[in-house]
Amino acid sequence: MRHFLDFERPVAELEGKIEELRHLSAENGLNIAEEVGRLAGQADRLLRQTYARLTPWQKVLVARHPERPHCRDFIAALTEDFVPLAGDRTFGEDAAVLGGIARFRGRSVVVVGTEKGADTEDRVRHNFGMARPEGYRKARRLMRLAEHFQLPLLTFVDTAGAYPGIDAEERGQSEAIARAIETCLDIRVPLIASVIGEGGSGGAVALAAGDVVLMLEHAIYSVISPEGCASILWRSGDNAREAAEALRLTAQEMLRLGVIDRIVPEPLGGAHRAPQEAILRLGDEIEECLRPLAGQDGDALRRQRRQKFLGIGAIIA
To answer: Of the residues 7, 96, 148, 284, which has the maximum number of CB atoms within 10 A of its CB?
Structure first.
C-alpha cells in the first residue's frame, strides 16, 4: 500500500476512489472505464498542480519519503558486478556508508554512498544513514583506491548529517569529515556526486565535493536540518517549516547559488512513485557528465574542482 504525505491527501482520495471502482468492475463486470478515466485524469492534474508548487518544507518531506529509492537501489540498478569493500583499516566497519568497485555502463568505477535503510531494523543497522568517523575514513580509502587504479568515482548522498554521538566525537568525527572533503578535492580522477535524498551538513559535503554535483529535483541540501535549525534559532523544533524556508535548501535554490551543477527531473509525484524511472534518469545524467571528464588530465581535473568550490558564495544574494 502506497504511503501518502499529508499534502497528498486529495490525490490519495481520488486514487482510492479509482481503486474502488476498479474493484467493483472486476467483481460485477460493470463497464466503468469512462468514469475511471475521468477520475484518473483529475488525479493526474491535481498531482501536477501539487508538485508544481511544493513549499521548501514539503520538499523536505518528499526527500525523506520512506519509499524513495536509496543508495543501494541506485547502485543495484545502475551498476553491474558490484564488489562491496568494507572497513576503514583503522577502527572498523560502518554500515551507514556503502562502497566498492563496479561497472557503470561498461566503465569500471568506484562507488560510495550513504544508506539510510528501508525498514526499522534495516535503518537501525545502517544508523539511519548517519556515518561515524570510520564511515568517512572508509570513504577516503575508497577514494584513494579509485585514484590509484585511475577509476572514476561516483558518490550518492542521502543523509540527515554525520552521527552526532559522543562515541563519534571521541573518535574524531570533525577531523574525519574534513579529511574526506580534502580527499575529494585532491584526487586526480573524475568525481560525479549525486544528492538523491537528504544532503545534510558536512556529512553530505564529505562525499559531494565533486567535479559535477547533481541533485534530484525534490532532494534537499543544507548546512543543518530544518528541525536542528529551528531548535537553535527558535528554541523549538515546531518552527521547522520556517527554518526550511530560510535555509534555501531546495535543488532550485542550490542551482541558483552555484552549489550544484544540474537538477535531475523526477517522475511526476516524486521519485518514490516511479523509483526505476528516477534511477535511470540519474544514470543518464551521470553518464553524460562523466563522458567529457574521463579523458582529462588528472592535475587539470584537480585544479578545476578546487577552483569550482573556491568560487561558491561569490553570487550569494
So the answer is: 96
| Parent domain of 71 | 60-310
Per-residue CA distances from 240 to 30, 163, 236, 252 (Å): 48, 20, 8, 19
Give the integer Cα–Cα distance in Å for 186 and 206.
12
Q: What is the CATH number of the domain that holds 114?
A: 3.90.226.10
Q: Inform me whether the pLDDT recorded for 123 exceeds 70.
A: yes
Do 253 and 162 share a structural domain? yes
Backbone angles phi, psi at 155, to 5 degrees: -120, 145
Instruction: Give yes or no for residue 2 having a pLDDT over 80.
Output: no
The structural domain count of the chain equals 2
Residues 36 and 144 in one domain: no
Length of the chain: 317
- 47 in the same domain as 140: no
Rounded distance, CA 130 to CA 96, Å? 6
Q: Is pLDDT at 119 greater than 70 in this prediction?
A: yes
